[in-house]
Amino acid sequence: MASATFLSTLSLANKNYLLLTPTHAYAKGYTNNFRVSNLPSIVVRKEGSVRSQGFVAMQEKGGSTLSDDSRTKTPHVLTVAGSDSGAGAGIQADLKACAARRVYCSTVITALTAQNTVGVQGVSNVPEDFVAQQLKSVLSDMQVDVVKTGMLPSVGIVKTLCKTLREFPVHALVVDPVMVSTSGDVLAGPSILSTFLEELLPMADIITPNLKEASALLNGMQLETVDDMRSAARLLHNMGPKNVLVKGGDLPDSSDAVDILYNGHNFYELHSPRIRTRNSHGTGCSLASSIAAEVAKGYPMLSAVKVAKRFVETALDYSKEIDIGNGPQGPFDHLLRLKSHSQACHRQQPFDPSDLFLYAVTDSRMNKRWGRSIIDAVKAAIDGGATIIQLREKDAETKDFMESAKACLRICHLHGVPLLINDRVDVAIACDADGVHVGQSDMPARVARTLLGPEKIIGVSCKTPEQAEQAWVDGADYIGCGGVYPTNTKENNITVGLNGLKTVCMASKLPVVAIGGIGVSNARAVMEICASNLKGVAVVSALFDRECVQTETRKLHEVLLGSNIGST
Ligand SMILES: Nc1ncnc2c1ncn2[C@@H]1O[C@H](COP(=O)(O)OP(=O)(O)O)[C@@H](O)[C@H]1O
Ligand SMILES: Cc1ncc(COP(=O)(O)O)c(N)n1
Ligand SMILES: [Mg+2]
Fold first, then answer.
1. So what's the pLDDT on residue 210?
2. Which Pfam families match (predicted)?
3. Which residues have CB atoms below 5 A from the ion given as ligand 3?
4. pLDDT per position as a tens digit, 150-186
5. Does the residue 473 lie in any domain?
6. Which runs of E-coded beta strand occur in 13-91?
7. Exposed site from 117, 191, 370, 552, fewest CB < 10 Å?
8. Does residue 113 carry a pLDDT above 90?
């Protein structure tokens, strides 16, 4: 939409720079996070008149960067749409879709709707001049990449939008011509049609009508087949938008959800399996926002539409069992997070340090030696009284490891025992384990925390107070300290002894589990160092390098019960 003109040049540190508005820089592809190779980097000044005038300073070809305070452009979608109090569609769906697709989303609200899973009970339009004020507030300050429109309930609002977009051009415009909600309620009446067709559509980079909306824009044309959708796409394209996506979510008798994309040259028939679900309220809004998000990241339109469609399909599939509201059409879960909390078998308690009491760590070689599966080993340890399990499967193939981890997780959760994975954060994520245990040379706990999120348990092996301090800073939940005694389980492992264990316990606020050569004969001595944050012992060989895991675990459990763990 924007034509790129350089506004002026600027001399800084004896070098010449071109000054562009953010929009112009964008239109030329001069941004860091755009997939435009061999272009000079762009630098946004944080302070001073350059930035405050809303300019982007761009280096002339080559050379070093303008200053150290360079900023990367955050992809930004502005949605101009109606609010849905039930939060399934409209502004609320747009915000969630953009968050899920990882772009920033600002909002201009055109109408308030009182809406739920039953339907729309009321609509109150925002006055035109206040829509104009919101648009100006956002567009004059923030570097919006893509504007996405949803419910535009009056001619005045459509006109205001078109006027403002001419004043503040953006990189792309995605128009979802929302007219009637799936529940059948009118959100924008036929009176807006002519302004829509004459003013807004010609500015659009893509329009995304569903079958009813395509029909309304085409004077009531009947749309019942994929061929009808193609004809509609061609006719709508003649009205000026660069791309047309006719959505077939409501196409009767189709086992796939088929959409037709037409760019004036080619037709693309996009299929995804039709998800059988009641929770499809807001699919159209979410699809359009996701397209806008991908375009804002710099993807071409075809890729943007494909990714967006795949995202909606995945979210619908994930959200099949979500139960919100009593009406015929429920919302879905854009962030794919709700279900795990409602699943009965999911561990919901936060980390409890007393879980470290009898910490069983599996070992694939020992299991092989004794001819037992990892699942049998875990079952036996839990039956014997283990309070937390760590899977330490150094030799396992990833696929086998994942499968066994999933099976172990089911067993652990049946018994309320947390399951951690040694080293393999990827496996922990893939099977939704309760957490990970990492060593000093594994992925840093801080990075694991970012990947796993705030609730998962993270333990770190530490031998020194410095390492213990770092574990705390990195957001670990507990420390594994050892080897307390010499052990064959780990090669070249330095033994810290009871003194080393005590030093780490005293230096840290974190709960500690002792590890290394501990068994029935010496567990009591370990616990008698009397540190209040020493919560238990972690054991490998003394449980798993034995004929009967359950018996050995039970014996150790009894010894530990007789000690004064964490009581001082
Ligand atoms: N049950 C479903 N399974 C998979 N995809 C669907 C389903 N329903 C709709 N879609 C897809 O969601 C997007 C929105 O389509 P649609 O529901 O037709 O729009 P609207 O919400 O505007 O009525 C389209 O890509 C469509 O193919
Ligand atoms: C505020 C608002 N905007 C858009 C829709 C369309 O969504 P759907 O077609 O899923 O009902 C809606 N119901 N409410
Ligand atoms: Mg729909």
1. 96
2. Phos_pyr_kin, TMP-TENI
3. 182, 249, 283
4. 999 999 999 999 999 999 999 999 999 999 887 888 8
5. yes
6. 15-20, 42-43, 56-59, 76-84
7. 191
8. yes
Active site residue 461: yes
Q: Where residue 208 falls among pLDDT bands split at 50, 70, 90?
A: very high
Q: Are 254 and 220 contained in the same domain?
A: yes
Residue nearest to atom 2 of ligand 2 (CA): 90
Residue type, 277: T
Nearest ligand, CA of residue 184? 2
Q: Is 310 a member of any domain?
A: yes
Residue 181 sits in the same domain as residue 246: yes
Only one residue has tokens 């030329």, namely 28
Distance CA 540, CA 514 (A): 12
Edge-to-edge strands, sheet with 15-20: 8-12, 15-20, 56-59, 42-43
In the structure, what pLDDT confidence band is assigned to residue 528 with cuts at 50, 70 and 90? very high
How many structural domains does the chain have? 3
Same domain for 50 and 120, yes or no, is no
Q: Calculate the average pLDDT of the chain.
A: 87
Q: Is the CB of 285 under 6 A from ligand 2?
A: yes
pTM of the model: 0.74
Most informative mutation of 250, 270, 277, 287 for ligand 1 (most atoms within 8 A of CB): 287
Domain span holding position 128 = 76-340
Shortest-distance Cα residue to atom 17 of ligand 1: 249
150 Cβ inside 6 Å of ligand 2 = yes
CATH at residue 357: 3.20.20.70
For the chain, percent of residues with pLDDT exceeding 90: 77
